[in-house]
Amino acid sequence: MVKKEKANNKVYKGVVEEIKNKIVSGELKKGQKLPPKRELAEKLSVSRASVREAMRALEVIGFIESKQGAGNYIKESFEDVLIEPLSMMFMLQQINAEEISELRRGLELEAAVLAAERADEEDILKLEHLIKEMSVTENEDRNVILDKEFHYTIAKASKNKMFLNILNVISELIDNFIKGIRKEILSKEENKERLLKVHSEIALAIRERNKMNVYKAMEKHCTIINENILLRTKKE
Amino acid sequence: MVKKEKANNKVYKGVVEEIKNKIVSGELKKGQKLPPKRELAEKLSVSRASVREAMRALEVIGFIESKQGAGNYIKESFEDVLIEPLSMMFMLQQINAEEISELRRGLELEAAVLAAERADEEDILKLEHLIKEMSVTENEDRNVILDKEFHYTIAKASKNKMFLNILNVISELIDNFIKGIRKEILSKEENKERLLKVHSEIALAIRERNKMNVYKAMEKHCTIINENILLRTKKE
């Protein structure tokens, strides 16, 4: 477990540690209710205000949720737990659009390779269905949704929650910080055809469980996207 | 910017939002001091207790630090900002050692490919120097340090802070949750030679700026590591 230095005046940190310890020991599991504030305060010999601060902190990190009048619970799902810290890093310009695109590339490539190995029939049919719709729709907003679903399905087919979580966060970061970029890329005539082609290549290679071809097709895909993102961010 | 639903009783969340807005607008930059609690409380018409809760929360996420008697500051560096959420996810068994290893593979491969393009002379000399020491040292603890430094240098040579940050976090997670695994892997006779060979191949390929060879050598490296991690986790 990750140790943090405890300052004397940081009573609430002791409470956060205590809850973490209960998680490590298995005493607290996802979805479970936390002990009442009063009980925690007594047990740790701290004020209820310190317990409340600790709860707030854990809520902001996204690990507990407080249900009105019903107490605090360990969350069931942690899918959005990385959004806040990554968004803040982005906002403070510790990271830029190019770095995000490169990270996306690394993860998309590996997720696609894993998907070629692990996708089940349902995943593959979903990909093929999405491509069919992409090839006929003229609606640009619909195309954005289909594109997102396509990549979400690949991440899901990797059967690795880390890839799914982080790629989702990156997708949100791109939407939030490079406004309208997805629509811009998908609407350009020269991109439309190229993207439809690589999307089809990716789906086919996953169907054929051909890792090398998946890698190559996804590499082409990322090159198209990253070219466009660079073009946009250099204009700004 | 990422919107969160505001419950009426979550006054502190409004304060967190306000600080985030100041970051987005550029009013607050890294290393800067936050306005005094009193001032924020007045401006937002909330209690000082709510402002304090917001500060605690931002501190737990790792974005501000409070300096004894000197107020709250936006941090200078956010390198450790992902450790807490990822550790918690791990602890709550949302992710397992295999998933972490796969994520590491995806990131190491891409970081190494970027390093082949971007490593400067200093990075390359460092890698070569580390290999020279690895090939002669008999001390197992020293070998663990050299191995970590080798991979840290590649991540750094990618010149992408996202790879550096996330790979560091993964490295810490592995150390924390698969205790002693690094030493175990590096101490096995059959691994020693194979690892020294792939480390040398990686460094050489970076020196020659040969992306394909870097990829292949790093792939071999990850296979050795992941085999060993799987062996261990299946025993447990």
List the helices and strands and how they pair.
The structure is a homodimer of 236-residue chains.
Chain A: H1 11-24, H2 37-44, H3 48-61, E1 64-67, E2 71-74, H4 83-91, H5 97-118, H6 121-136, H7 140-157, H8 161-177, H9 181-187, H10 189-207, H11 211-235
Antiparallel strand pairs in A: 1-2
Helix pairs in contact in A: 1-3, 2-3, 4-8, 5-7, 5-8, 5-10, 5-11, 6-7, 6-10, 7-8, 7-9, 10-11
Domain HTH gntR-type (chains A, B): 9-77
Pfam family, one (chains A, B): FCD
GO molecular function (chains A, B): DNA binding; DNA-binding transcription factor activity
Question: What labels would you give this structure?
Answer:
DNA binding (chains A, B), TF_FadR/GntR_C (chains A, B), mainly alpha, Four Helix Bundle (Hemerythrin (Met), subunit A), two-stranded antiparallel ribbon, Arc Repressor Mutant, subunit A, 236 residues, 2 domains, 11 helices, homodimer, Tscrpt_reg_HTH_GntR (chains A, B)
Describe the protein's architecture and organization.
The structure is a homodimer of 236-residue chains. Chain A has 236 residues and is mainly alpha-helical. Chain A has 2 domains: 74 residues, Arc Repressor Mutant, subunit A (Orthogonal Bundle); 155 residues, GntR ligand-binding domain-like (Four Helix Bundle (Hemerythrin (Met), subunit A), Up-down Bundle), CATH 1.20.120.530. In chain A, 72% of the residues lie in helices and 3% in strands. Chain A is built from 11 helices and 2 strands. In chain A, strands 1-2 form a two-stranded antiparallel ribbon. Chain A starts with 10 loop residues before the first helix and ends with a helix. In chain A, 44% of the residues are buried. The N terminus of chain A is likely disordered. Chains A and B meet through helix 1, helix 3, helix 4, helix 5 and helix 8 of A and helix 1, helix 3, helix 4, helix 5 and helix 8 of B.
